[in-house]
Amino acid sequence: MTNDPRTTWRGRVLSKYYYGRPDWSDGTTRFHNLIARYAADGSEILELGAGPANRTTEFLAGRGDVTGVDVDPDVLANHFCSRAIVYDGVKLPLPSNSFDMVVSNYVCEHIEHPPAVCGEIHRVLRLGGTFIFRTPNLWHYVSIISSLTPHWLHRLVANRARGLSDYHEPYPTFHRMNTRRSCRRILRGQGFQIVRCTCIEPEPSYAMASPLMFYPAMAWERLINSSSALEDLRANILCVARKDG
After folding, report:
1. Which of 38, 50, 61, 225 could pair with 80 in a Cys bridge, judged by C-beta atoms 3.0 to 4.6 Å apart?
2. What angle separates helix 180-189 from helix 114-124, to the nearest 10 degrees?
3. The pTM is what?
């Protein structure tokens, strides 16, 4: 028996319509490439919401020394972190001006009090340091559905929709920092300079439960990427903010 993912329908369609295209990069690769533009070798990096071992922490560990913080004790098992800390979700138990970069990957949607958390991120960054994050865009249809449905339903269907098994159940979402406008407003309110805030529509990983979900989602991806005028309807926000003072 082979474990080649291309033998599954998911692997075949992703290879055919996405990964097989020379001009295509998956969403995580695009996020990592963005981080690489700002992360000098040997950087002191804080990953907010690091969780257990994952692709992003592994990537960050190749750029510098990674401290991972999370509300979930699973972070203590993240072997890519040089240091792992469980915290209360707001107050970072770390000294001021101690990091060159703070990174979060699909975390902002789970933050109940974004101004307080962003103020803490600003505090622990050194002057000129950057906060780089990826988060769902509230104006994308998946996020709209998520914001209008109860958490018990997310727990029931979220991982199934992505075709994931043996995966951590979703955390509660608040979507209080999940439009480009709210990101800019909250970050500027805490003293950040916005360097970049864009929306992207990558492969429809949220529609991997069946072909009946995948093909309409792919059609939407093709449409939404056809014009820059539709950017604010794309799935993910990529943001870079700098501490200038």
Report:
1. 61
2. 50
3. 0.90
